[in-house]
Here is the input.
Amino acid sequence: MNIDQSPSNAIQNMIEESFPLKIMRENDSVFSYREAGSILSPTICLLHGIGSASGSWIYQLQGLSENYHIIAWDAPGYGKSSNINTEKPEPSDYASALNNFIKNRTQCLKVLIGHSLGALIAGAYVAQRDVIDKILVLADPANGYGASDPHIRSQILEKRLANMRKLGPEGLANARSTALLSESSSSDAKGIVHYNMKKLNIKGHNQAAHMLAKGDLKGTLGRFHGSTLILCGSEDTITPETKCKEIANIIPNAEYRTLYGAGHASYIEKPNQFNNVILDFVVNSDA
Here is the structure.
């Protein structure tokens, strides 16, 4: 398929028809998600980044579902998922929401994969719970700015919020979506990133921006001792390899792998490489 960067019916159909959005209600909360594979198989749960959504995981829903139950959630404030009930949430708020989602969707979570902001949520989740038997994968992880100087943290947050105020979701997608990819990315990858970014919910994005400002993945992950894989695209300019390796060095017994030729949205740009590394790590962790 030859898809250009602009919004495309082909991209929309590929995502929405292949893996239509599902809805789960839990008490007063609503979660939207996409799903593939048998519910009787071990579950891999996929957590997207701040400028994305569940539809960005189409290649993992396709490529990992032969032997696994794949769930790609929409974080609170994304897709049709309810917002967090506070204007300036903490990573722990998203971790609690994730716990509610997981316990109602599967009894056999095996692998938790978080990309960028999703890695920050995954880190908060495993730090709060006795999940030493789970496999944690952090792809192009965002550390957050919680340990930064408060003035710098405030400046970064305000810049992100101002961009959304000025551009709106579609304008932000037009201006920023290619920054998530390498210069040699395919038109399909550009279309998938753009399509998911232009569907952002402004309030959900802004809440996530506050959470990112408060996050400190390195400060959190030192408490986790389970099997951990850190991935980063060799062409990632948003969370470059030097930063991702710092996170890997914090975690006891973590393994680090480079995804060659991939930018920040590595799982979209190099899906076969991404999926194969995941499957290899999971099999060897079971050995």
